[in-house]
């Protein structure tokens, strides 16, 4: 694309974010001009000179040729934090599909215009030894107000503006006069809205073990050679990954650089954060969703001004503008919360890697169960694979039992607890040890299975579970293939075929029924709706206020419970048969992490996994805590079925009020993509076909090369520009979807 015209954002302030202006690029600047640069442009009726940032180029303009003004000059001063953010926004827009404004909103916080808390102080500027003489002079001339203020300052060194005006009755003009005389000065102190008030004393780090030390030595050497790599740190829960992050952060701080640490919101608990504050004191700042906008903005400013070295937060903390970024750590890098659910649907891992390469920083991705994508990248040499093989404090891995629910049914056990699990629960209640019962449910699980033989209804084309729909139909959520709901199991003929439902409340009441003496805490969306109750429930449990904690995936993160010696996974099938290609991966992750909760103290633990699919590799490998075995199987499936990360996938959503229009437009788009020779699935109805009166259709395309998918997106965007329907229909893109 040529550089005849430039898209320019005028200032990066709250209001201006809403528009991009078109300017001519003078011939003399065409070589030099770049995206992200700051330029001076004439603006508004009076053509006042304003600063702007270049966010894009084009060969034509939508405005009248002779009304388009010309860029005055490129501002010197290199690449500022803002222009780096703009570059990143531009990359996000290209990579994930969105408008520039949406991308900018993602990377720049909205400036909070709330009144900053501040205080003004009056201080003595002259040497106090000259004070008495001056005081004498003021009195002599009957400057009584000046004399009052000076006397107070000689006494107290500094006094607040409030005190001066209310108690001493000093007017502003008196203060101004004395400022002009260079006798006093006025200083304004701003308070950062800093939520991390608690003072924590620093603690010396634990000595690293050999494995950890080797990794840090390697990291240090890479830094010395200015090699900024992406490291994938794979180690079971408790193997000391966090200690490695802390040591690596120290290395970059020594170089005068800063670090961003991303932790999934749900794992951002007091315990985790405390480990960072103990190490880095008030040089750490925390961003989380409980902060007000103003507090968030202040953390952002502190980072920009270099007042902190480390920032910890969820996905959005990635966009903190450190002056000299040295490292980005992403803990639990496999977590789906790193993918944004709003347009632009960026992935924090990919974006972090891009940001790091733009700014010369390293990246450490850590997980006990790395994403299949990252592990593949590591095996193929794009990331550097770091492994921790032992638990740091030599805690033993738990013993795992896989219980086949079909056998339970055959034995006449109709309870939700298998015989093995019930026996172990009784044992723990008798011993006064704690247990966690875990329901690995994500959102809506509408799959259909046979309670006798465990058969699950799957799409013959896509190899994912079909979902039960209205009017007795089963449907594939990728390709739209439909089947009537069978009355008997096609495998074994049993009539016990149906949707699978189990909720935390049902589990809670089953416990009360079967173990009336047990004290139970339940954690799910209902019980954690209030602001702090997530932490409160976990705290109550760690204090021993209950025997059993029942919950969804929320309970597997964060806290260490020395007294938990039993973990029960009630229905591994709930996540195993979710209707997307990541179901096996997610199940392996959830089971491994849940199992990791058992026996973290010195007692050793046991884990019971209940399932109708005891032979499934995700379950077998999780029981053995064998990541490599899982990976080998999973990558085979992805490759055979052309799913990411072997192939790349792009989802295009169309939504609008008029069903006909949505159908029509999505069909045309699919035709264009087919002509471009993409592998196109759909358009079909989205899994929630109607949402808030919007009718939704979806197209999936697959290709071996991500760049080709970006091309497809660009082509569709360009084509949409020329369609009248674009006003009524919202189109958005999702690359390698995580949450559908
Ligand atoms: P992960 O992040 O992999 O779950 P952590 O870093 O939290 O592991 O380590 C688990 C536990 O082991 C923590 O209590 C931590 O303080 C301790 N630990 C980690 N490394 C060491 C070490 N080298 N020496 C002693 N204790 C360690
Ligand atoms: Zn059956
Ligand atoms: Zn299908």
Automatic annotation (TrEMBL):
One GO-annotated biological process of the protein: DNA replication, synthesis of primer
Entry binding sites for Zn(2+) 1: 450, 453, 489, 492
Broad enzyme group: isomerase
One term under GO cellular component: primosome complex
Keywords assigned: ATP-binding, DNA replication, DNA-binding, Helicase, Hydrolase, Isomerase, Metal-binding, Nucleotide-binding, Primosome, Zinc
Enzyme Commission numbers on file: 5.6.2.4
Cofactor field: Zn(2+)
Keyword check for Metal-binding: yes
SUPFAM superfamilies: P-loop containing nucleoside triphosphate hydrolases
InterPro entries per the UniProt record, alphabetical: DEAD/DEAH_box_helicase_dom (IPR011545), Helicase_ATP-bd (IPR014001), Helicase_C-like (IPR001650), P-loop_NTPase (IPR027417), PriA (IPR005259), PriA_3primeBD (IPR041222), PriA_3primeBD_sf (IPR042115), PriA_C (IPR041236)
Record note on cofactor: Binds 2 zinc ions per subunit.
Cross-referenced NCBIfam families: priA (TIGR00595)
Similarity-based family: Belongs to the helicase family. PriA subfamily.
Record's subunit section: Component of the replication restart primosome.
Job description of the protein: Initiates the restart of stalled replication forks, which reloads the replicative helicase on sites other than the origin of replication. Recognizes and binds to abandoned replication forks and remodels them to uncover a helicase loading site. Promotes assembly of the primosome at these replication forks.
Protein name from the UniProt record: Replication restart protein PriA
Organism for this UniProt entry: Anaerostipes butyraticus
Lineage: Bacteria, Bacillati, Bacillota, Clostridia, Lachnospirales
